[in-house]
């Protein structure tokens, strides 16, 4: 069976996050078998890695993207943590967009986007 993967081999998946590439060859060989070894890999989606670069977006742009996806602003009950939600989780209460904006501002948070994936993090 030529299409069957070799058993016992390790597949190394390179990951590129904000200019950092986690695909390095160790200084010391980990295996005595010369056929099993990690490979060097180039970063970026074009070379098979995952190109994940988070870029800050304006609050208005984030709200527009969230609305297109059917997302609403939410607060985790009993905390000051905010996130986007579809409103189905009973541990997250839906809040107004104005409260969402003020919480982002008060806590110095910003919405970051990477190809449609949005995340709320501290401002850089």
Q: Please tally the helical runs, counting DSSP H or I stretches of 4 or more residues.
A: 2
Form type: globular
Number of strands: 9
Strand order of the largest sheet: 2-1-3
Give the low-confidence spans: 10-26, 35-45
Q: What structural category characterises the helix and strand content?
A: alpha+beta
Beta percentage is: 25-35%
- Report the sheet with the most strands, covering strand number, pairing sense and barrel closure: 3 strands, mixed
Total domains: 2
Q: What oligomeric state is this?
A: single chain
- Proportion of helical residues: 10-25%
Can you write the helix and strand succession as a string? EEEEHEEEHEE
What is the overall pLDDT average? Answer: 74
State the separation between the terminal residues, measured CA to CA.
52 Å
Instruction: Compute the CA-based radius of gyration.
Output: 21 Å
Can you describe this structure?
The protein has about 120 residues and is of the alpha+beta class. The protein contains 2 helices and 9 strands; from the N terminus they run E-E-E-E-H-E-E-E-H-E-E.
Write out key terms for the chains shown.
single chain, 124 residues, alpha+beta, 2 domains, 3-stranded mixed β-sheet, 3-stranded antiparallel β-sheet, 2 helices, 16% helix
């Amino acid at each position: 069976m030529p299409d069957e993967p070799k058993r016992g081999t390790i597949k190394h998946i390179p990951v590129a996050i904000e200019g950092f590439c986690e695909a390095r060859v160790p200084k010391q060989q980990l295996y005595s078998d010369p056929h099993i070894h990690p490979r060097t890999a180039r970063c970026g989606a074009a070379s098979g890695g995952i190109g994940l670069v988070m870029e800050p977006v304006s609050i208005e742009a984030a709200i527009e993207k969230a609305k297109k996806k059917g997302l609403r602003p939410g607060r985790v009950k009993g905390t000051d943590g905010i996130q986007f939600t579809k409103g189905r989780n009973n541990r997250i209460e839906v809040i107004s967009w104005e409260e969402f904006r003020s919480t982002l501002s008060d806590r110095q948070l910003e919405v970051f986007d990477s190809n449609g994936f949005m995340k709320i993090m501290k401002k850089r």
